[in-house]
Amino acid sequence: MVETTVRYANVTEEAIRTWLKNRLSEDRFMHSLGAQQKAIELARNFKFDQDVIEKAGMGGLLHDAAKLMTPQELLEACNTFDVPVTEDEKRSPQTLHPFVGAEMVKWEFGITEPDIINAIRYHTTGRAGMTPVEKLVFIADKIEGNTRNPLYIQKITALMNYRDSQTLDKVMLYILDSTITFLIEKRQIIHPRTIEARNDMVQSIKAHNRENLNQ
Ligand SMILES: [Fe+2]
Ligand SMILES: [Fe+2]
Question: Which residues pair with 12 in a beta bridge?
């Protein structure tokens, strides 16, 4: 079989997988493959075009590239790649793995496609104004079949209506709401981007409902 170079990168997918396997634990590698598979499956079910399907798959595969780095390594990488670090992030450097991962894949594979880079960057916090690729990777990360809780997967999958264009936003809202509730219960810090992402989903669902009423 001839391996072709992945679009948006300067290497083959096989090379990317080998690199990832060497950086991650067995579990985390399986999680990454699961996220790739799930992102592609969701994109296909929602009938996105091939471009979105490919970018979601690549984002899913690479989203946790920096997950196993130590706090020290993450902070050093931020310094090297000029990633700004807030005081909260300094206190919990693990929250930096999405941004460091994004810089690493740029550097390692020449991936600069904004959709892939941003899907990696915002896979834990979300943000306002997420693209379909970003949403697909965000959701796939939480419900991939290799390592995530089967009950949670079932719950989210039950919310999926592939004929409803608002489903991605509704599922995003459900996940963001449960994340925020969990963090409040645990008295943990909530990243402002998570609140912004949540509010953005509420607005977009409301706007869509208003449009439907006016039709
Ligand atoms: Fe992650
Ligand atoms: Fe993940």
Answer: 5
